[in-house]
Design a protein that fits this description.
Layout: H1 6-12, E1 20-24, H2 30-35, E2 41-44, H3 49-57, E3 61-62, E4 74-80, H4 89-98, E5 100-111, H5 139-151, E6 157-169, E7 176-187, H6 221-232, H7 243-254, H8 259-269, H9 273-282, H10 302-313
Protein name: NADH dehydrogenase [ubiquinone] flavoprotein 2, mitochondrial
Cofactor: [2Fe-2S] cluster
Keywords: 2Fe-2S, Iron, Iron-sulfur, Metal-binding
Length: about 350
Amino acid sequence: MFVFSSEQFARLVEGRTGGRLLDLGAGDGAVTSQMEPFFDEVSVTEISAPMRKILARRKYRILEIENWANSGLWDVISCLNVLDRCSKPEELLAQIHDSLTPEGKAIFAIVLPYQPYVEVGGKGDHQPEERLPIEGISFDEQVASFVKNVLHPANFQVEKWTRLPYLCEGDLQQAYYWLSDAVFVRNARGVQTSSSALSDNLFVHRDSPEDNPDIPFEFDANNKKRAEALMAIYPEGHKRAALLPLLDLAQRQHGWLPLSAMHHVADMLEIPRMRVYEVATFYTMYMRKPMGKYHLQEDLTGKDMDEILEDLKAGRKPKAGPRSGRFACEPIGEPTSLKGEPTGPGFGVQPGL
């Protein structure tokens, strides 16, 4: 398992040295070894018997899960990818808070999107007894929710956070898996009460009459033909590249993009819905709710604007739709590629468009 290097950890803790470190759920100790050089004393916890043997060979002091919270105060407690794998994460947060020195730091890492899975304990169905109230669809939404709904109520204040790749062992289908880890450094003695928290600046999805998965949506006959034509542009196995224009088409038909429209596009492209959520919440051209009676978008060249202005001066209504009359921006002959000769210097429009 890989979460961060010693160099990255040094930036997280601002190069501090000395004191006591407790690494909760240390696994095989690989990540612990990246933090070890910064401390005088290192202790670990781990529930897996094989991992405990490895930790013992590494000479780490192993504390029992049941009583580590009674082992004194710690300068740093790391809880890396444990909150979504334990049965009572809220109880664990309280124990961490009460086990830190007055200037102590807690380092949390959690894989997002949040998908809890408890191997030992829990309710018998691999689900936790306490489910963290993390809301939202995209990575940013869930980060905001984790800060606001989980860590602030537990009296942890954000000092810094980052997004890191979490590499873990794979299976028969794949050698290893790459996940998105949100890593937070927290001060347990300060309680944030300001209304301008990080989460206030990020959107968290909540079902509404205008945006929910039950709103009926499917492309009408004309737009279905357009959608099929857009997907046909791309080679076999790459039709997911049509995601942006299909979302635009859905928005043009419905007026905005409810969850049901995103689900319809995901099903057409045979991609996970999460991929659609990430795109639709990242690009500002996609609207998640009605924006008014009229919604105007422009993406025009200088020549297009000249033609429109000439029409208006002459009292004519400018032509509606794409100026070229086409609903795709790929060349007529074939998808864009690097096979052709480059054009000369300066900006130009391909004649095949």
